[in-house]
Amino acid sequence: MAEEKKMSFQDSFIRFAGKIAANKMLLTLRDSFVIVSATTMIAGFALMISSVFVNPKTGLIFSDSGLNLGALICGSADAFTASGLFAGLSTASTLISMVSYGSLSVIAVLLVVVFAHTFSRRYFPKSKEHITSVLYALGAFFICMPWNFAYTPTDSTTPVNVLNYMDTTFFGTKGIFSALLITGVAVWMYNKLLSKGFKISMPDSVPPAVAQSFESLIPGTMTFGLFVILTGISTALTGETMPELLLSALQAPALAISNTSAFAFFSQFTWSLLQWFGIHPTSIWGPIFGLTWNINDTQNMLGQAQNIYSTMFMNFSTVAAGSFALAPVLALLLFSKRFSAKKVTKIALMPAIFNISEPITFGLPIVLNPLYFIPFVLAQPLAFYIGLFFTQIGFIGPIMNNVPWTVPTLISGLLYTGSINGLIVQAVILTVTTAIYIPFVKIDNRLNPDVEESSEGELEDGAEKGSDSQKAAIPERS
Q: In 3D, which of 25, 39, 5 has the Cα closest to residue 294?
């Protein structure tokens, strides 16, 4: 009966989580953030190279807080500061950082383009031209943008009213919520009107591209008209444009919630719990992090804030620290006496070095294996809070560098933080998370002796007995 209840709970949980993971809107959001993340990864990598390696003032290589090679090359710190090498490195650092202007600084605009196209393809697959949806989504977004705003110069405390210029700060993280909401409404309205026959039909003799342009005139005009009206209403009633209103009403509270310890614990615990059930947690948490911790990532990389909670910190302290992949592999390699387990871990070791967990989680397996439930589910929250502890005591700072999560453990700790302290923290995390697997590996040794070994032993005993009986049956020759 207990087994039936357990299986019933597992089936119910998997079915429930599967429905969430298969939700069309969540899939659309997830795919959009994944596509855009390619550009942010490039920018993050460029900023990491700039700040960690090239920057002569704060970098790991040339600054006096790092290896101090600048002073060694030029003879002294003052000589290095006055040298052409210092000026060249400063220029190179600035140029490399400019990659962020094409990604992080305009992430909301990029999301409008990608989300509009993905939304149109997934919800309106019969549409003749999905790029037209992108066109009207971009137009709607720019209609809603603040075109008059107050700007306070750096050398003054008095704000200046800027007229007929767009507040480009909403191109970045400030505009993500409004970009997604405006795009979703614009694409849905345009395609619905088009499908209902609100279009100008052209003769067959007209080229398809021209015909599609005329077909989009009426639904496109009505879509633009809606956002003109909404912007007018928003400005008249609240004194704020829609992006400003959505920022204060939705994005700010969501970010405030995501920066709480409760949100952090829930995300880390359920992440590994979903993984144990065989459900990829990114399918559920990806869109949520996209609207919260990914924004913190961008702010940190641009130097706009020093958020502790971010997906970069999560990757640094959990995935890239080996808590998912390398820790169980090391525990099994060192303490498992089972032939089959050691065989799997030898195969899984190389992927685990690059933080790829599937060979061990599905090969051992750990997924849906009650024996490894406790260490697998606890390893990630434990790793996360070890990293958080070292951050709060000031041993490492908030993570400001975006490093690919496949960079091996310890090396990634150095790159994420730009300091040897990051390597030390990851070493502590890997040691602790490996240690919590050890008792369960030893239990596994006792509960699950290898069938192969037993079979081989029985065959050897049988062979010896058979040879003895054969010897007894053969008469000795005189």
A: 39
Q: 273: phi > 0 → left, psi -120 to 50 → alpha, else beta; which?
A: alpha
Q: Residue 219: what are its φ and ψ, rounded to 5°?
A: -65, -35
Nearest CA-CA partner of 184 in 292, 29, 35, 295: 29
Q: Of the candidates 290, 320, 338, which has an alpha carbon nearest to the alpha carbon of residue 407?
A: 320
In angstroms, how far is CA 111 from the centroid of its own chain? 15
Best CA proximity match to 220, nearest among 160, 294, 134: 134
Could you give the CA distance from residue 8 to residue 257 in angstroms, rounded to a whole number?
Answer: 33
Ordered by start, the domain boundaries in the chain are 21-102, 105-258, 260-454
The residue with tokens 């952090």 is 264
450, 428, 414: which is closest to 382 by C-alpha?
Answer: 428
Q: Could you tell me the CA-to-CA distances from 288 to 27, 29, 141, 451 in Å, in that order?
A: 11, 9, 22, 45
217 bridge partner residues: none
What pLDDT score was predicted for residue 209? 66
Residue range 264-279, pLDDT digits in tens:
999 999 998 988 887 7
Q: Give long-range contacts, CB 8 A cutoff, 24+ apart: 208-217.
A: 208/128, 212/128, 212/129, 212/132, 216/132, 216/135, 216/136, 216/190
| pLDDT tens-digit series, residues 209-234 | 666 677 888 999 999 999 999 999 99
The Cα 244–Cα 250 span in angstroms is: 10
- C-alpha to C-alpha distance for 397 and 403, rounded to whole angstroms: 15
| pLDDT confidence of residue 128 | 80
Is 314 a residue whose pLDDT tops 90? yes
Q: Residues 428-457: pLDDT tens digits?
A: 999 999 999 999 999 988 887 765 444 444
**Residue 247's pLDDT band (cuts 50, 70, 90):** confident
Residue recorded with tokens 């058979």: 466
Q: What is the mean pLDDT of residues 121-134?
A: 90
Measured CA to CA in angstroms, residue 282 lies from 163, 288, 298, 322, 337 at distances of 42, 9, 19, 17, 34
pTM assigned to the model: 0.76
At a CB cut-off of 8 Å and minimum separation 6, what does 235 contact?
A: 241
